[in-house]
Write a structure and sequence with these properties.
Elements lengths: L4 H10 L10 H15 L7 E7 L6 E7 L6 E6 L13 H11 L2 E5 L11 H15 L10 E7 L1 H12 L9 E5 L10 H5 L8 H11 L25 E8 L3 H13 L4 E10 L10 H17 L1
Length: 304
């Protein structure tokens, strides 16, 4: 399919941003935050509360979104940004829309960013935050609700890692929702070649992110970095994997879904034709984003 016209308009809007490797990190973060604020289109929810989760790193910011109606599940959400960019505000729109559509409390979790904090900092934060949320469900207003992990891009990577590493029966996620996740460090996949440049996220941009987060190529074999490298997927929960046609990460997301299915995990996988990386966080600008949220919400409701 040809490039979605709304995705093309977003690419044009973002074209003025400097190449990732050519700008100081703080300027890149400010630019990313400004873009997110410009495109923000959150929905009203019953309440939003900012908290700080105790962690060995000194504490992690988190934000709790409670919709008017809640069911039996809650969602722990990790933002994207290549482990280098992003914060709670980046996924504010996604969190509100997902909370309302899924009738689920959403706990959005921040984590330390590279290159100041390289692997395993983000993973340690994601795992600690999830464990704390699981142990403090009652005080967070989600009672005994089962937890679903979710995330986009690098946040999808962290969600997948948390789902794989949490083995205690009382804490294990009951599902995972992954939007165009980073699951591997292989730059030789066809989607990297086909979408190397011109579609917002470039192959060079992903190399920049990987070099910032895990500069040692040998360390990228670790399944806590590349979830696709795990020896078994059989213990993972039912999963939804959403990918985009014009995304360098498309093929590794598809491969991850295929590995889940091969190991007997119930999985729904869908590639949005004509779409680009990050489209799900462009709700209000790209119509397919709202459809992806509805798809994810239906998946979560089906887990109850």
């Amino acid at each position: 399919m040809t490039l979605n016209p709304q995705a093309a308009a977003f690419i044009e809007l973002a074209a003025s941003a400097p190449p990732l490797s050519d700008d100081p990190i703080e300027r890149l973060r400010l630019g990313s935050a400004a873009m997110s604020a410009r495109l923000a289109d959150p929905e009203q929810v019953a309440s939003i509360a900012d908290i700080r989760i105790p962690a060995s790193s000194g504490g992690l910011p988190a934000r709790i979104y409670t919709p008017e109606t809640t069911g039996s599940l809650a969602i722990v959400l990790y933002h994207g940004g290549g482990w280098v960019l992003g914060d709670l505000d980046m996924v504010d729109t996604l969190a509100t829309r997902l909370a309302n559509a899924a009738a689920a409390v959403v706990v959005s979790v921040d984590y330390r960013l590279a290159p100041e904090h390289r692997f395993p900092a983000a993973v340690d934060d994601a795992e600690e935050a999830y464990a704390w949320i699981a142990a403090h469900r009652a005080e967070l207003g989600i009672g005994g609700a089962g937890l679903v992990v979710a995330g986009d891009s690098a946040g999808g990577n962290l969600a997948a890692v948390v789902a794989a590493s949490t083995r205690d029966p009382w804490a294990r996620p009951v599902g995972q929702v992954l939007f165009y996740p980073v699951t591997d460090h292989d730059f030789d996949r066809a989607s990297y070649r086909e979408n190397a440049e011109g579609y917002y996220l470039s192959a060079a941009g992903m190399r920049f992110f990987w070099d910032a987060y895990v500069p040692d190529p040998s360390a990228r074999e670790d399944p806590r970095v590349s979830p696709l490298r795990a020896s078994s997927f059989a213990h993972l929960p039912p999963s939804l994997v959403v990918t985009a046609e014009y995304d360098p990460l498309r093929d590794e997301g598809v491969a991850y879904a295929e590995r889940l299915a091969a190991d007997g995990v119930p999985v729904e996988a869908y590639t949005y034709p004509g779409q680009i990386h990050s489209f799900v966080t462009r709700i209000g600008f790209i119509d397919d984003a709202a459809d992806a949220v509805r798809r994810a919400a239906a998946f979560v409701r089906g887990l109850a």
